[in-house]
Amino acid sequence: MPQVSLTVNGKRHSVEVEGRTLLVELLREKIGLTGTHVGCDTSQCGACVVQIDDKSVKSCTVLALQVDGASITTIEGLAAADGTLHPMQEMFREHHALQCGFCTPGMVMNAIDLVKTNPDGLTEEQIRHGLEGNLCRCTGYHNIVKAIAAAWPLMHGKKVPAAAE
Amino acid sequence: MGFEGIGASVRRREDLRFLNGKGRYTDDLNRPGQLHAIVKRSDRPHARLVGIDAAAALAMDGVVAVYTGADLAADGVGGLPCGWQLHNKDGSPMAEPAHPVLAIGKVRHVGDPVALVVAGTRQQARDAAEALVISYADLPPVVGVRDAIVAGAASLHDEAPGNVCYDWQIGDKAGVDAAFAGAHRVVSLDLTNNRLVPNAMEPRAAIGDFDPFTGDHTLYTTSQNPHVIRLLMGAFVLHIPEHRLRVVAPDVGGGFGSKIYHYAEEALVTWAAGKLGRPVKWTSDRAEAFISDAHGRDHDSTAEMALDAQGNFLALRVRTLCNMGAYLSTFAPAVPTYLYATLLAGVYRTPLIHAEVKAVFTNTVPVDAYRGAGRPEASYLLERLVDVIARETGMDRVALRRRNFIPSDAYPYQTPVALQYDSGNHVMTLDAALAAADFDGFAARRAAAKAAGRLRGMGISTYLEACGIAPSAVVGSLGARAGLFEVANVRVNPTGSVTVFTGTHSHGQGHETTFAQLVADQLGVAFDQVDIVHGDTARIPFGMGTYGSRSLAVGGSAMVKAMDKIILKGSKIAAHLLEADVADIEFSQGQFRVKGTDRAKALAEVSLAAYVPHNYPLDELEPGLEETAFYDPKNFTFPGGCHVCEVELDPETGVVRVVNFVAVDDVGRVVNPMIVEGQVQGGVAQGIGQALLEAACYDAGGQLVSGSFMDYTMPRADCLPNITVGTESTMCTHNPLGAKGCGEVGAIGSPPAVVNAVIDALSDYGVRHMDMPLTPEKIWGIIQAGRPALAAE
Question: B403 FRET partner, CA 20 to 30 A, in B215, B605, B609, B742?
């Protein structure tokens, strides 16, 4: 079986995979990082979003062999070593942006990318549009939108509140 | 540390593990030596099962076993039981056909389990399932509810002639008929309630584990009620005594009803693990979930209201045809009857009601409770009918509702359809919602929209539901085969921390936070000293689980009862320690105090004395400080409220945008307002989904054509508005917390508000009613059809 070498949350791994093994299967089953979830089979729900070289990607839609040499961040790799939460995690908690928690890892990973790639500000409409690829069945998105808006100034070191109530 | 008791929006303790990827959902678990299973499912809606050739599959790499219905039958495995027996109008019991775990003789819906393939890896099992050769002889499919009862329709089950499961009624038929005969006016409406797929984000999963040394079975499963699964699977399907069967439901990623039921796969992995002596794991993929998780709703109804000249409701007559799907799911028969027809009074003092409900079998996925379960169907029917009455009589829709409301001083209120409501105030929630939604300013907003070429509409819904499920004797008399009490075990540990074992189950509701607040508040213990344990039959004495918005009203009440016992025993211990009379001991804020003095013992001192009983009334009291309570509710609880929806339509595309949504609900006592708000918002999102987006669509050939997230329109962030939530509470009068429940109100109150708003927006186009979901295609068609009429005016 072919071998893939990659860095996940700062740690190097070399793992044998089948040609058909998906990145999400590699993470969950071979490396044991089960924080990344699988909620569908059509690349629609976004529960499996991780960051590959700082870009958010649905890990159900990437073959493990495609990430040879890449650096992956999963939900387990966000908080600091002392447990301090990433501002996006903190705002999700503060604004009750999760209920069952199943969509949350993908939602948070995508939201971080959304905030990073919009340094000039984020309107509520942009946030809602930016979440198009992530399904949540519990929250109605209201508090997720609030949490992302609240994380924007924290992540950009600004005091100006972004849009949304 | 701020106030963390009842009424505080404490941030959830669950969140830290979920936000760090440390949740433990069933598919995250793996057992040593584990095998993987794939369920081979029917791709035919209705066919005779002629043969299964597993030779090629069994020869493939890693394949350990292929099991069929015959293997289960040979081992004495029973069918999946139904938990509720209804009776027909003539008193005879409903048809209750066999529900085999794996198909025997026939398949009855696309997705019906046909074989279980077990292999070393999931991929090997999947490859082998593809290699199974299954021969079918197709039979004509029965798809819609009306197709099921036409003469000459194919028959699904020999036990159910004419495909009828039951033909049931409630209410005073003669009285209703007489009222209609003498009515000033009758308004009627035909409507459907669209079939939905619950789609919790976590697909179902199950792991069976067997210990050959002890003979103990363990099932890890995505369940809302592990004790119920243990009871049903142990007693009826696999015949495993309860003390040899442990069911664990760890973190569960949403349920909405779909994870209440005992499913075939739970029995399959438990049985196969016993056969093979190795753990067996099954995880559903989403395509499989669409054709195997119980669906919701699917009613076809006619509603008629008899009115007097002033617009008073005199009598309501309802006839509903509802879909059970191919087999009876666990609670299916109760949903369109005791959770639906008993709610047809709604918030109105309609003195006479008669409802007939006919349930039929079709070649579709079984239908059971989905968030709201029967009550959304009742509120939708009533609130659409009331709007149609208002339009046709020329009465103001708000005034018509006010005129017919049950007045707040009429509580307790006996309805003509069995229920006795304990409390409510419909004017209060209506006024609050109208104010929050700026109802009075709507005309100006509509005019502004019109000037911009858009159509604005506003819809309201005033609703009531019954939850806090349920008084056991009452539901027993109505056909339930189980009690619906709840259990709490409260253990004060020696050093004063508290562990609570609850029979409810949290799968998004935040119980670990809410219940800890409740216990911290009542026992005067710090919030972080209270731990809540749920989801494991080996740790919790018993429980009926979480559904029907019951966890706080029933499970929380059980905790209060158990804490009362703790305080009673603690008072005796404190009296001994303080050398006082027990009658002089009072308990507050964690202190047992001799009344009128500063002599007191903290709960932690009392518990230490209970576990280290050196100075202890041993001749009078047992050591330890741990109490269990089984709480059986005295009645259902009756949350209600008013939802107001404002929409804007683009007449060029038919696209609806919900521009504002206000929900003001009476949920009784609120423990954590932040969590209640989140529950209502989530429910409203599902209600907006039902009204505008979602439908489980079968084609005439019996294939589910909306069978993936590419086809079934789940609400996404950009199709939903901000959802404003308010609570205006009256207290439940019969449980110790005054709690009513908040989990389902959003999904129950919102669909008619949305549809009423869209119909209102289209008021110039002569449309009386449209069936959900109100897709752009349907709306655009109405607008196109209405244009010539407008132009001619």
Answer: B742
pLDDT for B510 = 97
Q: What percent of chain B has pLDDT over 90?
A: 98
Alpha carbons B761 and B756: distance in angstroms, whole number: 9
The verdict on a CB contact (< 8 Å) between A101 and B14 is yes
Tell me the ipTM for this assembly: 0.97
In the block, residue with structure tokens 């194919």: B154
Give the tens place of pLDDT for each residue, B133-185.
Answer: 999 999 999 999 999 999 999 999 999 999 999 999 999 999 999 999 999 99
* Beta carbons within 8 Å of B608's beta carbon, 6+ residues apart: B494, B495, B496
> Which candidate from A33, A74, A145 shows the least CB-CB separation from B717?
A145
Domains B14-139+201-254+259-290 and B299-469+635-792 fall in the same CATH topology: no
Mutate to test the interface with B, among A30, A128, A142 (most CBs of B within 10 A): A142
Superfamily of domain A87-155: [2Fe-2S]-binding domain (1.10.150.120)
Nearest to B201 among A18, A45, A85 (CB): A45
CATH of domain A3-76: 3.10.20.30
Instruction: Name, in order, each residue with C-beta under 8 angstroms of B276's C-beta and a sequence gap of 6 or more.
Output: B35, B64, B65, B118
Helix, strand or coil for residue B661?
strand
Angle between helix B603-611 and helix B557-578 axes, rounded to 10 deg: 80
Q: Which of A127, A137, A144, A165 is most worth mutating to test chain B (most B CB atoms within 10 A of its CB)? A: A137
Look up the CATH superfamily of B14-139+201-254+259-290.
Answer: Aldehyde oxidase/xanthine dehydrogenase, a/b hammerhead (3.90.1170.50)
A58 near B CB under 8 A: no
Dihedral pair phi/psi, residue B674, rounded to 5°: -60, -45
Task: Verify whether the Cβ–Cβ distance A37 to B508 is below 8 Å.
Answer: no
The CATH architecture assigned to B485-631 reads: 2-Layer Sandwich (3.30)
Cβ distance A142 to B718 less than 8 Å, yes or no, reads: no
Contact state of B28 with A34 under an 8 Å Cβ cutoff: yes
